Amino acid sequence: MTDELMACTCPHHVHRNAFCKHMAAVEDATDNGTLEAFPSEDDKDERISGPHTGYDKYGNVDHTYWQCGGCGAEATRKGALTDCC
Asked: pLDDT tens digits, residue range 63-75?
């Protein structure tokens, strides 16, 4: 993704050449600061590990999450664990 060009491999974008929900999510996350395309090396917190793969009750990949080694808290954003313990 760049400022001028964004693409996705989902069928909605590939077959219709349309702006899909995945592209909207990336655009939203980069606009509100919850996604860093190029995270800095200074952002390393040794107690937080991840991303880990989460599964639904059927064993399908459902989400990714980060986990705090200090208290065991989990979050879908690494930045959400800054004040956990």
From this structure: 888 898 888 898 8
The answer to whether 36 and 44 are in contact (CB under 8 A) is no
Q: Which residues pair with 53 in a beta bridge?
A: 64
Q: Is 10 exposed, middle or buried (0-12, 13-18, 19+ CB in 10 A)?
A: middle
DSSP per-residue string spanning 14-34: HHH----HHHHHHHHHHHHTS
Q: Which amino acid is at 6?
A: M
Coil, helix or strand at residue 74: strand
Torsion-angle region of 73 (φ positive above 0: left; ψ -120 to 50: alpha; else: beta): beta
Per residue in 1-44, pLDDT tens? 445 577 888 888 888 888 888 888 888 777 766 666 555 555 55
The token duo for 22 is: 């995945």
